[in-house]
Design a protein that fits this description.
By secondary structure, the chain is mainly alpha-helical. It is 57% helix and 6% strand. This is DUF1819 family protein.
Length: 207
């Protein structure tokens, strides 16, 4: 178990809100007030809206990928019109910002190598080995998993069961965003080598 247990993922963000917020950030036309307006379309209550604004900001203007996406703004905005690329870009934002999301994404990829479905109990058991068995764990799982489902990279055929939804990148920027999310949590790996056998890349149709 890690000496420092960090989760940080406390609020589920609908993918429609994340996409609108990202578009605003890339266009340079955004503010916390705008994020609050977005949050108010989905949630009620000042505290919930404030938490949502913080999460939107974490996933967009405070995201490790944002400089890359800004540098390729036109390509990103075009890629978001493609379903598969939208899935990869939005998933990459979640993964790059939260190590918990990277861990659960990779854990699922590992088990999807050997089975078609993964159950919640197994995910909880394995994630608790790193993050402990406190209430932050199920709360974070209830944020991360629904976001990946809504993004289109996971499928839940019934309660407690998860299946993979492989994605074929249609643009270079979508694939690069996905790669950068991987290398953000694996900075010591060589960028000159492909990692098709890594569980992270189980989600790509081409691998």
């Amino acid at each position: 178990m890690s000496d420092k247990i960090t989760i940080g993922l406390r609020q589920r963000i609908p993918m429609s809100l994340l996409e609108m917020a990202l578009t605003a950030v890339l266009s340079g036309d955004y503010s916390r007030e705008y994020f609050a307006e977005l949050a108010a379309t989905e949630y009620n209550g000042q505290n919930r809206i404030a938490k949502t604004v913080t999460a939107i900001s974490q996933l967009t203007d405070q995201n490790p990928l944002i400089d890359l996406l800004r540098e390729n703004k036109d390509e990103v905005l075009l890629a978001l019109r493609n379903r598969a690329d939208r899935t990869l870009i939005l998933s990459s934002l979640i993964i790059a910002k939260f190590e918990f999301a990277y861990d659960i994404f990779t854990l699922l990829g590992k088990y999807f190598h050997v089975q078609d479905q993964v159950v919640t109990a197994l995910i909880t058991q394995k994630m608790s080995q790193k993050y402990g068995s406190n209430r932050s764990l199920p709360n974070a799982m209830n944020c991360a998993l629904p976001m990946f489902i809504e993004a289109g990279i996971l499928h839940r055929p019934k309660i407690g069961f998860f299946e993979i939804r492989k994605v074929a990148p249609g643009t270079a920027i979508a694939r690069r965003a996905f790669d950068e999310a991987f290398f953000h949590w694996n900075p010591n790996l060589s960028r000159e080598l492909p990692y098709p056998s890594h569980p992270f890349y189980k989600y790509l149709e081409e691998v």
